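Obj.: predict assembly geometry.
Materials: sequence records (below).
Method: joint structure prediction, all chains together.
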Amino acid sequence: MKRNILEKIIIAILVLYIVLPISMPIIFSFSKFWQGILPKGFTLEWYASIIKRPKNYSALMISLFVATMATLISLLISVPASYVVNRLKGRFGESLRNFINVLPMIFPPVIVGSALILSFSKPPFEFNGTLFMVIVAHTLLGFPYMFRNTLASFRTIDEVTLSQAAQSLGASLFQRFRYVILPNVMPGVTVGALLVFAISIGEFEVTSMVAGFTGQTLPLQLFQQIRNDMRVASAITAFLIYVSLLSFIGITLITSKARRS
Amino acid sequence: MRKINKEYLLILPFFIFLGFFELYPIFNLFVKGFFNDKGVFTLQYYKNIFTVDQYKVAVRNSLLFSTAASLFGGVFGTLVGYFISKLKGNTKNFLLSLYSLPLTLSGLVVAFAFIVLLGRNGVINQLIRMIFNLPKDFYINIYSWPGIVFVYGFFQIPLMTLTMAATFENLDKSLVEAGRNLGCTTIQTWKYVIIPSLAPGFISGLSIQFAGMLGAFGTVLALVGGEKNLLSIQIYFQTSESTYNLPQSAALSVTLILIIAVVLSILNAIEKSLKRS
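Observations (raw structure tokens):
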């Protein structure tokens, strides 16, 4: 009995450890005034300011655009690549997979940022400071997660056998992709896409290095607002948390569904 | 046979993208650190790292900070992972999902959350001052090194928790029982059975933590600006602030990559030797 209570207390502490910090910006964003221990009043004003202030609104749109593009590019390069890697036999396929897994570790965001600036600041490749550079940077940080999840899907459905069956029925490569492979790897691809999108929406470090004036994303606005106006900052922070929460709920639903079937 | 080979071309877009936007730029880092603005070969930028205080301190701080943060995350993450792996059903799944949430959160979000919670006039600091009747200038300081390590724990502990929960899950219970049946004491079981089978997971968890911490700077920057000197922050300043100095940032970046590579290979070697024994 005593053990049971102790267990419940530990569970409560573990839940609070995550929930307490991330609930702070959310409570802050709905309150009129928070100087003392408890917040006062209820308002949606700070959220409205994201839409009303041109700078914040354009940052929101840029963030959504960049995240969408980064997700699409990750998808376009990762899905065909994992199709091939899944079929590669022997050492090469294995070492390629390991390489992509350590990539984010050995080349962290700050390195990706400085390498991009160094290489693309002069003609003929003068991408630095453009929106394109921001999208590329986000893709670089996100695609390993897409690749990992897609490849795992290819492995669990035993794509090679499925494809052989389809091939023996006369399906072309395109038909196989469209009717056999994609529907089956969809859960992994979706999990990857949600991760890339969530990472991109919140990315600050590389963005602040390569963005310049054209790529002012929401986190860059947030960074300025933390110093200037905590209330607007709270609404932006809360919005970023909602995006993470939504993608995380999506991922949980997909993986638990996959586990059950 | 030829038909299969043609399908392998599907990997090309991936290689082109990776090669042009990641491998070529990184290769560039290794080259450009040896040439000054006029294109003359020099070792000055690497010499600076060993002689200029600003960089020496940055390297030292980065090593100390990453070690402290990975150990903090490593120890607590292992404990939490062990606890969660013992739970059953929905509670366990819920906690595991909850602990994967911080992985996608922006560093700025976490900085903001902790400023509201534990900043100078944060909720918890006000509460503590009120309950214990402390003077106005007393507060738990998240702007100090230990404070920053604690804040980064919000990323590090969950990361380690997920790794270790899986490791504990895979711990072969029959192996533990076999040990007991052969008359092992509890200490012997831990020493010869449990720890050797947990160690590889623990070490690979530590590697992820350490590498991640060496490159981290978003949360630090949001909390204290440039006040705390880290290698990652030096690289950031050399590329984007008024102190723009690209060859120096290349040399610093290469240093960071080399440190990560050395630490990862040491940990990897330890992991392998543990697996063998």
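Conclusions so far: Residues 53-260 of chain A form a domain with the MetI-like fold fold (CATH 1.10.3720.10).
To do: check interface contacts against the pulldown list.
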